[in-house]
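Hi support team,

I've been running sequence recovery on a batch of backbones for a student project. Most finish fine, but this one hangs at about 90% for roughly twenty minutes before it completes. I'm not sure whether the input is malformed or the queue is just slow. I've pasted the structure tokens below so you can try to reproduce it. Let me know if you need the job ID as well.

Thanks,
M.K.
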């Protein structure tokens, strides 16, 4: 089986550390207070806004829950020595939001990932066991179902109309540090943040509302009391809030919830079949643009959705359904929130003129089943499990759907592939003795002296069979 952690997009060169805010000890979680003021009037203008956020909190807070999760994981210390059977208890504290009255809860995937026992505490102190219905690692959104619910629970409306503007007031509601439900306020600092290092297909709402460890999975709500995002991560030097927090937009939250409620076990993200580079200042000048904006198409997948729509290399994609596009991450997000076979309107700049091109987005071609890896039994790569890359597989691993070659999955301990060649899980074998590798069969029975061109974490190098 392929190690799913190997092809994740990484932006760890950013000087400020990115913190996924789900941490702490489950035992420190406290029940939430359930008393809110009932004698306040919702603020109607900027002056009265100074009076109180209580009307919004009163409506929204009952649907925000605390999540305490426990699990058992292999002790990483003993794992380094190849010793199995050593395990340790681990725990996680986070937040969540009830989005359906029958007990469907949205939270962050990293809050519950790898956990076996999940407990959810409501605002009124009731506790429920929960099971995972769908966990989407790419968006970091998970959907839970509370067990034993026999009445309608309070919910938050998912507002995916994307009417927010920079400067709008927002509230963050969650369980920071496991102290119990806490409300902080701030504004929307930015929209459509893509170059965050959180995800290669994410477009985030940035806010200065205080978000701290334990707030993960909590609600970002507007002044109507609607859910506009799920708080996910912060940039911080200390691990605590420094006023730069990120939330998954309600558009993607709705997509994951609908998939889960509809019975899907995974979120199927369609694609446009185009790849590009962000328009820089130099590119903008060469194209006669008044500012750097858009994505220059550098590759079009043969017979893919973009190709059939007439998009070609050199086109500049400026928007999807009216939403501005500035990089590949933004394009991936906009297309990924659609259902397969939906038609999107692609705004394309070509020959100095912007035109709208309808394109039907579709599933990525190929097989993403990582359990179909081939174990090489002879030659220099004996002991390595490998798979030929295709768009669906590469995308499922967080990689480039346009990538070609063979990816290495698990490598058996003390195998020749490990000791004699030095391949690692996640390596992409691009060439053998200078010739492109396109199938697993090319890697069977490798003799001594064979040279493999390998890409590892974005860097290329040569491995030699000894």
């Amino acid at each position: 089986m392929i190690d799913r952690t190997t092809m994740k997009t990484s932006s760890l060169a950013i000087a400020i550390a990115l913190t996924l805010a789900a941490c702490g000890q489950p035992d420190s979680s406290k029940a939430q207070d359930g008393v809110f003021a009932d004698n306040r009037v919702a603020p109607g203008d900027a002056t009265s806004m100074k009076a109180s956020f209580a009307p919004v909190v009163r409506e929204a807070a009952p649907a925000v829950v605390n999540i305490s999760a426990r699990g058992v994981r292999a002790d990483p210390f003993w794992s380094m020595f190849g010793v199995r059977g050593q395990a340790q208890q681990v725990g996680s504290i986070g937040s969540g939001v009830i989005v359906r009255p029958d007990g469907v809860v949205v939270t962050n995937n990293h809050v519950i990932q790898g956990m076996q026992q999940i407990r959810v505490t409501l605002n009124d102190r009731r506790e429920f066991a929960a099971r995972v219905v769908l966990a989407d690692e790419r968006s970091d959104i998970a959907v839970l179902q509370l067990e034993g619910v026999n009445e309608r629970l309070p919910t938050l409306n998912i507002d995916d109309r994307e009417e927010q503007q920079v400067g709008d007031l927002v509230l963050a509601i969650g369980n920071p540090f496991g102290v119990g439900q806490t409300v902080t306020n701030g504004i929307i600092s930015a929209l459509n943040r893509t170059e965050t290092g959180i995800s290669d297909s994410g477009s985030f709402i940035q806010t200065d509302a205080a978000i701290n460890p334990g707030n993960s999975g909590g609600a970002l709500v507007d002044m109507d009391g609607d859910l506009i995002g799920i708080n996910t991560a912060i940039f911080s030097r200390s691990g605590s809030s420094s006023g730069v927090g990120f939330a998954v937009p309600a558009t993607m939250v709705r997509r994951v919830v609908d998939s889960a409620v509809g019975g899907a076990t995974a979120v199927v993200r369609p694609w446009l079949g185009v790849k590009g580079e962000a328009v820089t200042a130099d590119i903008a000048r060469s194209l006669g643009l008044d500012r750097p904006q858009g994505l220059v198409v550098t590759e079009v997948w043969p017979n893919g959705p973009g190709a059939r729509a007439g998009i070609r290399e050199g086109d500049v994609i400026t928007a999807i359904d009216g939403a501005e596009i500035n990089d590949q991450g933004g394009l991936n997000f906009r297309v990924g929130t659609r259902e397969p076979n939906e038609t999107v309107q692609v705004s394309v700049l070509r020959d100095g003129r912007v035109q709208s091109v309808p394109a039907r987005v579709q599933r990525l071609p190929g097989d993403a089943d990582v359990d179909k890896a081939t174990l090489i039994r002879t030659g220099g790569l004996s002991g390595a499990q490998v798979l030929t890359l295709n768009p669906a597989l590469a995308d499922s691993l967080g990689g480039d759907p346009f990538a070609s070659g063979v990816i290495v999955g698990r490598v058996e301990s003390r195998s020749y592939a490990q000791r004699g060649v030095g391949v690692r899980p996640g390596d992409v074998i691009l060439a053998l003795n200078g010739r492109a590798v396109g199938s697993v069969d090319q890697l069977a029975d490798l003799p001594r002296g064979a040279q493999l061109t390998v890409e590892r974490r974005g860097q290329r190098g040569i491995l030699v069979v000894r």
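--
Follow-up from support: It reproduced on our side and the slowdown came from queue contention, not your input. The longest strand covers residues 87-100. No action needed from you.
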